[in-house]
Amino acid sequence: MDRLDAFKSIAAQAGRGELAFPTNVAASVKLQQALSDPDCHTDTAAKLVQADPLLAARAVAIANSVAYNRSGNEIAGVRQAVQRLGVRTLQSLVAALIVRQLGSQIKDPGLQAMAKQLWEHTAHVAALAQVIARRVTHVDPDTAMFAGIVHEVGGFYMLSCADSDPSIMQGEPEEWVEHGEAQIGRGVLNKLIIPEAVMQAVEAMWDGLRALPPETLGDTLLLANDLAPVPSPLHSRPGATSPQAARTIDFAIGDGTLNAILTESAAEVHSLTTVLML
């Protein structure tokens, strides 16, 4: 199938909600839907997490990370981890699991390499977004991390679909940006019941318009994306800031600067990135 025709076909299916998830991904999507229920309380969330050993291990690990354990008191139980993290952070971990599962289904070596780099990029963006939200823009940090985790989920879905014909992903990155990214991404995000605020932030990334100094969740996500040391392999936007050029981004924040805050928060960013990469 022609590359553009493939994008358009999958985009049309995504728009209709006709998404083909592997069995393990479908199970995680159901878990995400359960956690999205407003009546899902901590005890229920803990039971759901305990049913998935991998998710349980990651929940404990992130609860003990520098970003969530500033007192230095380590915990070993899932229930304690859920209490410390809250349901919204658990949703982020489940979203991360879904994204990783989509990548793990890929058999083609070239697409596997793209999925690996895309996840490294995603983990860095999520960790940076959490810190930037807390220290700079003062939007909700957990929501910012969640937005960072899901901002490339459409790309992961596309890579998994391309496994039967890897040539689909071998053209110019701009073709993916123009004909697949927003359409497919929006369909996958809708399927995962992503909150409207997060949807708007991801859509702001597709528009590529970021204010400095940043103010909104969308600005937070865009700045984190620019600052991520590992770029997305799926596209290089016209006018996008390279990781090298992004190091020159700085502006005053109160009595400090962005670069000073990022230096102070380096351990937190590294801790979160490490946990997400597990």
From TrEMBL:
Natural source organism: Pseudoduganella violacea
Pfam families: HDOD
Top-rank taxon, per record: Bacteria
All copies of domain HDOD, residue ranges: 21-208
Residues that span the membrane, as ranges: none
InterPro entries: HDOD, RNase_Y/CdgJ
Name of the protein in question: HDOD domain-containing protein
